[in-house]
Amino acid sequence: MDKWLSHPTSLKIISVIVGLLLWAVVHIDPDTSPQTVTSNVDTKTIEASVIKADGLDTDKYVMTAMEPTVVRLDVQGRLTNLLNASSDDDYVVKVDLKDAKPGIQELPLVATLPKGIQLVEMSPRTVTVQIEEILTKPFELQVTRGGKPAAGYVVGASTVVAPSTGVEVTLPKDDMSRVGVVTTEINVEGADKTIVNKKAKVVVYDTDGIEMTNAIISPETVHVEVKITPPFKTLPLQVRYTGTLPAGLSLVSVKPAIDQVTVYGEQKALDELQVFDGVVLDLSKVKQSGSVQVKTEAIDGIKSIDPAEVTLEVVVAPIITRTFTGLPISVEGAASGMSSVFRNPADGKFDLTVSGAESVLNALKAEAITIIANVEGLKPGVHVVTLQVDVPAYVQTVLDNGKTLTVSIEIIDDAAVGSDDENAEEVGGTPTEEPPSPTPTPSPTPPDTGEESGNGGDNATGGPTMNP
Fold first, then answer.
1. Is residue 288 part of a domain?
2. 321 and 354 in contact (C-beta within 8 Å)?
3. Domain shared by 223 and 239, yes or no
């Protein structure tokens, strides 16, 4: 025995056995079975792993709330694997919203861990989410202007240049009902000319004026034009005429494509204007019915007119004549205490020939023609008074031989008349004695002055007019 123990080989074998026993004492876990060895496995805790939503149909729904938003993870694995997955982003926790419906609901959480790492504990294991249906609606975009333009200029109309299709807003159903205004703001501070194609951001505000930052806007920006002009005013349009139509033609109608224009100029000049008559039709250039383009002409104190050109629909037709008999003459302007008596014509009535298009004259009534004798300022005695004839638009009086239409009227001082004058009658009565009578023969129309005519004149002329 002693020889065996003292043998070198025996001593080596005994040393190996003792070493193995010592290693086993150090590494064997006393709380586990003899087969379980701890080796190099370790544990790790992720305190706040962010929960990610997955699978939601974003065309129909939006997640408006989630509680909690992070979870605590306890994991274990080999030390080398834990060291390789050092970032918290390597540990993914998801909630599956694929089958989620509108409303509040509790759903399970699923953790996806790096290779070689196992989940020991996850807290909590469920999450509460709120899902809302989303809506998309078109809205009218309002343009607001900030600041003030340069001195002497005013801010005119604002126009969205692009897109022309409008703006759409996408929001959860409950939020959509709180939309107050969809707007974009343009700064006009110090501007002295129109702002063209300005790019501006679109913003949605709720009914309390608070920006709704969760709104999805399409498009997010628009291009806007803001007019910066001198003071302006919108006026009714009145057409004037110059020249004369070719022989044998008469106006039936002149209709502008628009009935108003916008004029820009000094405020004082604008305040004095009630109509704009800077559209002048040259009748000498009208050969037939059709459309005529006429430029708008600036007048005193006016810098520009919008539009710069107006389309007129002109209708002409062959000219004819028509005679109206027994038209009454009205006397105006007699002084207080004075009476007037017709001497010639004694009955105070007149025959008048007018010309115009057939359709116009066929529709013309005698009541639309006014013949006036103005005796204002005349002293007692017999006077030859030039008649003023007012006729409707596109109707002219026919005057031959350069004569004017006149009537003989006697002005009587009522205070100087005695009882012998009781047989004298007022206008329309029969006089006891007639002076020589001038023949009321129509005379040619005076040369056209280029101004608007018709509706009467001092020389009993008529002409085409366009009422505003």
1. yes
2. yes
3. no
Asked if residues 227 and 247 have their Cβ atoms less than 8 Å apart, the reply is no
Q: What percent of the chain has pLDDT over 70?
A: 83
* The domain boundary residue, chosen from 229, 264, 283: 229
- Looking at residue 34, its pLDDT comes to 46
Residue that finishes a domain, picked among 229, 245, 268: 229
CA distance 385 to 278: 35
Examine the pLDDT at 454 and tell me if it is beyond 50: no
Degrees (nearest 5) of the Cα angle 78, 79, 83?
120
Residue 366 lies in a domain: no
Distance CA 197, CA 312 (A): 32
Residue 1: per-residue pLDDT: 55
* Number of structural domains the chain divides into: 3
* Residue 413 falls inside a structural domain: no
CA dist 461 → 51, 240, 386, 393, 451 (Å): 93, 16, 12, 12, 13
Give the pLDDT confidence score for residue 27 in this predicted structure. 59
Are residues 145 and 182 part of one domain?
A: yes
- Is pTM beyond 0.70? Reply is no
| pLDDT score of 247 more than 80 | yes
CA 384-386-404 angle, to 5 degrees, is: 110
- Domain that includes residue 174, residue range: 140-229
Per DSSP bridges, beta strands 92-96 and 41-54 are parallel
Q: Please answer whether residues 456 and 391 qualify as being in contact, where contact means their C-beta atoms are separated by less than 8 angstroms.
A: yes
189-221 tens-digit pLDDT: 888 888 888 889 999 999 999 999 999 999 999
Pick the closest to residue 131 from 52, 56, 223, 218 (CA basis). Answer: 56
SS3 content of the chain, % helix, strand, coil (to 5): 15, 50, 40
Report the alpha-carbon distance of residue 168 to residue 179 in Å, rounded.
12
